Amino acid sequence: MKTVLLGGIFGIFCAGMAAAQDAPVVYPFDGSFDDATFSVENAIVGKGLVIDYVSHTGDMLARTAADVGSDVKLFEGADIFLFCSAVVSRSVMEADPMNIAHCPYGIFVAEREGQVTVGYRSYPEGAMQEVQALLDGIARDAVGK
User: Fold this and answer.
1) Rounded Cα–Cα distance for residues 120 and 128 (Å)
2) 1-15 in b/e burial notation, b at 16+ Cβ within 10 A?
3) What would the pLDDT profile of 108-143 be if each residue is shown by its tens digit?
4) Contact assessment for residue 54 and residue 82, using Cβ atoms and an 8 Å cutoff
5) What are phi and psi of 77, to 5 degrees?
6) What is the per-residue burial (b if ≥16 Cβ within 10 Å, else e) of 49-79?
7) Secondary structure (H, E, C), the chain
8) Taking each helix axis from N to C terminus, what angle separates 33-46 and 129-143, rounded to the nearest 10 degrees?
């Protein structure tokens, strides 16, 4: 009975840890959506990085809402900036080549109910914390922290 109870508690603990690890890191932005996207772009380029692609996710969701049977407006604006860092990517992939699964890295800007946020996904412990530190620095630069 103790083994089953401890196993159940451990399972709940692990599920909670995974959920916490999956939560994005988000910072409020004091300004407009357009100002935030400009700030994020400048913060990325300011680190010497090249933006590979900007996903206009908010536009896609708005455009396809009726096609999927929804009338819910999720965002006033939502863009995701995708990029890599040769230095950081090499470092984390030399630690574990399967860290390729996390590349490219993304920072999002979203406006919802008049609130603009800048954020990124959380990464697993270990080598990928180097990526998380890079993203956190860029996001903080973008929001003025």
Assistant:
1) 13
2) eeeeeeeeeeeeeee
3) 999 999 999 999 999 999 999 999 999 999 999 999
4) yes
5) -160, 145
6) beeeebeebbeebbeeeeeeeeeeeebebbb
7) CHHHHHHHHHHHHHHHHHHHHHCCEEEEECCCHHHHHHHHHHHHHHCCCEEEEEECHHHHHHHHCHHHCCCCCCCCEEEEEEEECHHHHHHHHHHCHHHHHHCCEEEEEEEECCEEEEEECCCCCCCCHHHHHHHHHHHHHHHCC
8) 130
The model carries a pTM of: 0.83
Q: Which residues pair with 89 in a beta bridge?
A: none
Whether 76 and 58 have beta carbons less than 8 Å apart is answered as yes
Instruction: Report residue 62 as tokens.
Output: 């708005």
